[in-house]
Amino acid sequence: xxxxxxxxxxxxxxxxxxxxxxxxxxxxxxxxxxxxxxxxxxxxxxxxxxxxxxxxxxxxxxxxxxxxxxxxxxxxxxxxxxxxxxxxxxxxxxxxxxxxxxxxxxxxxxxxxxxxxxxxxxxxxxxxxxxxxxxxxxxxxxxxxxxxxxxxxxxxxxxxxxxxxxxxxxxxxxxxxxxxxxxxxxxxxxxxxxxxxxxxxxxxxxxxxxxxxxxxxxxxxxxxxxxxxxxxxxxxxxxxxxxxxxxxxxxxxxxxxxxxxxxxxxxxxxxxxxxxxxxxxxxxxxxxxxxxxxxxxxxxxxxxxxxxxxxxxxxxxxxxxxxxxxxxxxxxxxxxxxxxxxxxxxxxxxxxxxxxxxxxxxxxxxxxxxxxxxxxxxxxxxxxxxxxxxxxxxxxxxxxxxxxxxxxxxxxxxxxxxxxxxxxxxxxxxxxxxxxxxxxxxxxxxxxxxxxxxxxxxxxxxxxxxxxxxxxxxxxxxxxxxxxxxxxxxxxxxxxxxxxxxxxxxxxxxxxxxxxxxxxxxxxxxxxxxxxxxxxxxxxxxxxxxxxxxxxxxxxxxxxxxxxxxxxxxxxxxxxxxxxxxxxxxxxxxxxxxxxxxxxxxxxxxxxxxxxxxxxxxxxxxxxxxxxxxxxxxxxxxxxxxxxxxxxxxx
Length: 651
Hints:
- Helix 9 (388-405) packs across helix 10, helix 10 runs parallel beside helix 11 (448-464) and helix 11 (448-464) packs parallel to helix 12.
- This protein has 3 domains: 8-199, no CATH class; 217-232 and 555-649, Sandwich (Immunoglobulin-like), CATH 2.60.40.1180; 266-542, TIM Barrel, CATH 3.20.20.
- The strands form 6 sheets. Strands 2, 5, 6, 7, 8, 11, 12 and 15 form an 8-stranded antiparallel β-sheet that branches.
- The protein is built from 13 helices and 33 strands.
- The protein is globular, with a radius of gyration of 27 Å.
- The chain is of the alpha+beta class.
């Protein structure tokens, strides 16, 4: 059992080879797992499977992954598993009180204590299925708060896996489980069968020991900085979806001041027509409202509102990426997000729109917009109500015509949700030699590391298809609500320290793996945004301000070593031309109670700027002196969540 630098209390990964291995050999290092898979069937199928359980002080984490040949699956649009099959995770206490979670590959789950379904469970669940050549890769990630299991972790005696079916009977949700319930049947044979994870008394004791050790190690963290090995300068990767809105003159002045002070590296505009209602902004159907009209006639375009809107961005000195597409439509009947009837004409309309903003066409501007992206989430029916193949056809026309008209322009997309959608676009562009200067996706998450992991995969995908010089963008990101159908339930999140620490941790994690990350979004009347309806900035605005203040110092990167890993601390460190050293730290779900920063002995002073609960009214500033040997000890006032910007000086 390894827990020195991580929060894993056991990991079992079981590869199945062509000829199979003995049961004892396969499970030799996984004594806490018994009979989870039907070994004989999966051994013949060359399937790879892994089950991982992780924990920290607050959550139990489950990761389940199967890589199965396509021939073993009966696949439908409603889900990859047979009928309405669910995995069943049974969490049994020492008092035989059963709690279970059922979940499937469509992102649906239900949580029960005894026979009662619990809706406010705090569970975080996501799943994804990827088609890779002749296999399907299915991955489940489930985060479960300990407080909903038992009051004492030691009393949790068993974790059982089954596959079950949930059937609706009237208003009731009924659970049906048999000893040989399966999620796929091929030629009458069970692909999966009932399995079980057991936590023995000895294992449970080890879990407690590992958790306590992990917490003890992470209460006092030491950062060791090495300014003698400074690398290249940091670049600003903080992009923004949308910009100052069209308001009354005093309101516009205030929003422009906030926007200019934050200084995002680039701005793109998605859903601008929804966050600034009453104005026909950005969307192609709003700039060119009558599709049957002559698209080469300037009189058929309505540029006025978008001109006024984008002028604010230009005056603030921020670059623009023009998003060609439509805003989301949540209604059952959709009007603007259907595929264009004539893709060639639609692409030519886009060319004329960019001519207006770059070449002065139709009494336009000369703003030298360098990036043009197509659409947003074309694999989401609310944003592209048609087959994905229609989007690919549209991209081919769009990229080809824009690149021909503006050879130096960078074109790309697709801002998709699914990895398979990105791959289809990259494959088509390679096959047909279609321009693809950047590859971008959309993601929401509750773990900052998830964004960086996703973008590493996007980078690998671009390289795989020969687009090694293409940039990779996270075109839309924010925290992921537990329930997308009830965003109002988490309306408090944007104004919390939790959100501020999460967003700063996310942008720090993305620093080395992405070329631009566009936060969603600047302002709205709903859950998203950086400030309230009354233009009072939330804490996340100031967390981003800490980041841009750090970036503006034009620092060279400094390598940092931490005393432990997996501690919920995210950091950047750099050195300025005058020798001052700066470190930006986000504390997100961390048990840390104290930092110790180690530097060369000639650094004597440290000033810490703290994002406090009442910031900026009560700006938190602390002065720290070294111990004379370059060590600075900094006890933390905040618990679990915090944002800090540190400055170290020799004088």
